[in-house]
Design a protein that fits this description.
CATH class of one domain in chain A: Alpha Beta
Protein name (chain B): 3-oxoacyl-ACP reductase
Strand content of chain A: 15-25%
Oligomer: heterodimer
Shape of chain B: globular
Strand content of chain B: 15-25%
Structural class of chain B: alpha/beta
CATH superfamily of the largest domain in chain B: NAD(P)-binding Rossmann-like Domain
Largest interface: A-B, 24 and 22 residues
Number of strands of chain A: 12
Family (chain B): Belongs to the short-chain dehydrogenases/reductases (SDR) family.
Helix content of chain B: 25-40%
Shape of chain A: globular
Radius of gyration of chain B: 22 Å
Organism (chain B): Arthrobacter crusticola
Pfam families (chain B): adh_short_C2
CATH class of the largest domain in chain B: Alpha Beta
Number of helices of chain B: 15
InterPro entries (chain B): KR_dom, NAD(P)-bd_dom_sf, Sc_DH/Rdtase_CS, SDR, SDR_fam
Amino acid sequence: MSNQPGAGAGTTTVRNAVVIGGNRIPFARSGGAYAHSSNKDMLIAALDGLVARFGLQGERVGEVAAGAVLKHSRDFNLTREAVLGSALSAHTPAYDLQQACATGLETVVGLANKIKLGQIDSGIAGGVDSASDAPIVVSEGLRRVLLDLSRARTPKQKLAAVSRLRPRDLAPNAPTTGEPRTGLSMGEHQALTTAAWGITREAQDELAFASHANLAAAYERGFFEDLMTPYRGLTRDANLRADTSLEKLAKLKPVFGAGLDTPATMTAGNSTPLTDGAAVVLLGSEDYARANNLPMLANVVDAEAAAVDFVSGQEGLLMAPVYAMPRLLQRNGLHFDDFDFFEIHEAFASTVLSSIAAWESEEFCRTRLGLDGALGKIDRSKLNVNGSSLAAGHPFAATGGRIVASLAKALAEKGSGRGLISVCAAGGQGVVAILEAR
Amino acid sequence: MADTYLGLVNTPLPGKLAKTLGLPRPAVLRRYTPGGPLVPGPVLILGSGPGADTLAEALLGWDQDVRRHLRPGEKLGAVVVALDAVSRPEDLGAPLLELGQAVRALLPGGRVVSLARPAEEAGDPATAAARQGVDGAVRSVAKELRAGATANGIVLRDGAAADSPGALGALRFLLSGRSAYVDGQFLRVSAVPAPEEPADAGAPLAGRTAVVTGAARGIGAKIAEVLHRDGAKVVVVDVPAAGEQLAAVANRVGGTALQADITAADAAARILAHVKERHGTLDIFVHNAGITRDKLLANMDPARWNAVIAVNISSQLRINDELLASPVFSPEGRIISLASTSGIAGNRGQSNYAASKAAVIGMVRATAASFDGSSRTINAVAPGFIETDMTAKMPVLTREAARRLSSLQQGGQPVDVAETIAFLASGPAGGINGQVIRVCGQNLVGA
């Protein structure tokens, strides 16, 4: 299953697609600083900060691609509407994309491919999500009545439609992160995987602690000064606890996996909270960057998506990146040792640890991934070195943009090397990607 | 902050009442609008020195209506009084008494501009006395003028000719609406080679790149806007916490936003790297960022004192050192620092701020001396009472008093400070170096 026909994308590209820079607004906890900001507001803020950083006012960018996971039906053209509300030229086309938590990364992949093929010279990729301003869906009963009512012509027909309404129809369906096919929340799904891989509470808390410590250190050294623009009075990610400790994390009560036979280990400290935020990345061809005196931080090398059958329980909901990884590495002739930075999205600390455990397991890699042996070990000192979702928060579609911009900057600072990105997503999906320093 | 009284007194009935009661009657100032006339009416040239003929010719070249004599009944847009040849105090009487008659005919927003030579360059005491006399007379005229009219002077240093590019640039600035809130001031200009004529007179800074610190709001944001209006490419800098407003300013002026704390050790390096990458050369640096941490000295703590010194002067010294050592800073580069009338006159509760702003003046003069023989300039602009968020927080009565204490009987607008900075950044201001230009409406404080 790891064999893809055709030569590697790395050898057939027409030209390079480069990351020029990024911008995001600080991520807020749900119901916090952005409680009254819409997805459109936040995406405009992220775009305008990017425009200001790179002087793109009035410019017709090749294309803008972004999306949101929790999306109002009125936002069918969210990205285009955000472009119209931004300082970009109104002649900039835009499209919406949605691949759950992989949305942001997938927009980068899509626009980078267009740049590589010469279809566009520049692009802005990203995403936004608001758990605060989430759409609330009316009940199926009320919805049908309302639709019939809109079609009714006579008073009698109208009365007939309304008379079907029952009190229970008035209760709205609150948004959930539940999987439609299993009814389980994402956390409960991950709890199954956590138990299956025997990931300990201590290991999860250690990863969460490292995430906070790394993010705090990145702020301290000014790492985000050219990656972030404050919004609505927020100047840092609201979820960051610079003073957290393993002791404090150890005190938190488990919130997922209580019904399992094994001890519950997943807490609010080692799981990401519901978050509001937006992130965008400026991509371009080398010619575009040079012609406009813009920096080139890193090349977007290649990417691979995968999906798993979690419905039958054959695989964990968030394990798809594990399957995408060997296909991506093989196509590019690379191993874990060839990378200087690993950005594994921390949906839950145990998601990262389960993935790492799977790649290190000879049996799993042989039986599930079709490899000869274990894929390899990841040097933990290279993992999420500037913090990740556990500390920063995780506005679903914004996470990809956050990771790509931060990794590109880290590569540019180092001046050499490669970075590997892994993002899991609802629906049993995942996307992995390679960036390379210039 | 809106000046309610200013608005009220410029409507018919309350205006009449104010006149009857002898209350201050501040006028709506004549400010610059691109493409608008230089002065609101004919320009009368007084004085018998060679400067009179020279300036008359220059003004004719600018398509102005020039008069050499007062015509009965005719209103004037400006009066230029050439006193560049006075050699005895007695020489002042005739032209200044004529000026006294002429100012009666001055239109609202009119201008009086004197032309003289520096007393300290005089060869004898009588000449020095006469030249210094100009200073007192013009400052007094400024205090007597009403209806938004101002009086300022040009001082020709080192034998500069009246039609030297620097003198003509200063004349144009002082006649125009750009100098609306500059009153009772003297621009001291040296002879410098003629600057390149801008291709578009409406964009005198076209092709230049400017950095403005503290640009997220208030005066800094307005400086960015005016430099942009005059054609410059603007890089706006402010602390990361002000990034949202900074981005809005950058997008308004088509510039780039650079979030940086100017007190950080790497601030200059980051600014220079950004300018080098995006624009190649840095032509204009405006040190606008500044903070106040007011307390009576008896109640002052080290944190307040040190923060003000660090932001308002130490950062400027450090950035200038790196700027002047960098090949990115243009050989014709301009540095403009924000001082304050508090730094000239002192201000109760502002010992730290006044120290930092006086220090700016000291730095500017010393750096200017080191520029002798080069084409770079450094100057300070000292705002008086300017209507900003900061002054809006003053107690009502203190604010009202501060507004009326100037010859123009009102506070200035951020744009007034910005216009003076844009002028100092322009080619024709190349002969102005090491000066402190007050934009204060001739406020009594620090006069």
